[in-house]
Amino acid sequence: MELYPSIWTIFGQKYTAKSSIALTFPKKIAYYDLEMGAIRAWGWKELVDRGDVLPRSGNIPTRSLIRRYEMLHGYQAAWKAFVDQLDEDLQNESVKTVVIDTGSKLRALIRDAFLEYRQGERPGKKTLDQIEYAEPNRRTEDVMEAPRVAGKHLVVVYHETDEYAPVIGPDGQVVRDESNSVKREQTGKKIPNGYTHAEDASDWIFRTHLNDDRMPTANLLKSPYGLDLVDQEFKWLTYEKVVGMLKMRGRA
Asked: Rounded to two decimals, what is the model's pTM?
């Protein structure tokens, strides 16, 4: 059996089989390998050769390693190419799953494409203002929702990062520094790197790591099938193992 189309977030440390997990989802998979790292995943070549995985490259320009601020070129074209290819895959009935690897890279593309557009209006503009992030946020939300609306799974792979939260003073108010910016500190929690609302937007969330035996392991952090499923642990996680877990619990 197959589960209803959902948004799946898989995040964690490097080399914890995130891309390999994504390859276990229903075929065919349109795989957007934006960091060109999926070739290391288990079974990649065989799945591509069989036609079960359709590799998609983002062809994203490279930012300068020398200049902190620069006029951007090619990002709007890369974003349009991504959207056109995604639209084609969503209309392809043989495609059952869309994978974006990584969501961090997609988020950077969306941001830089809009910044390039704004630089065209205001030459010399270095960064987006906070209010200008409304458009990149909207584009990200559209990408997240489109596959599910088209009846396909969306799997987004992220690196992990530390969560930061505002520092609250004794008076219950946020603490600000000398420049009047809100001070933040680490909460001790790890979150997907790149999209602030990834957790809210996802139906399923798994965090990957290596267990004491150095085996890739994933912990279930969010599920649409009930809070009692949270904290389930999977060694060598696959889509079929999730289906099997739900069957054992009478949920599928």
From this structure: 0.90
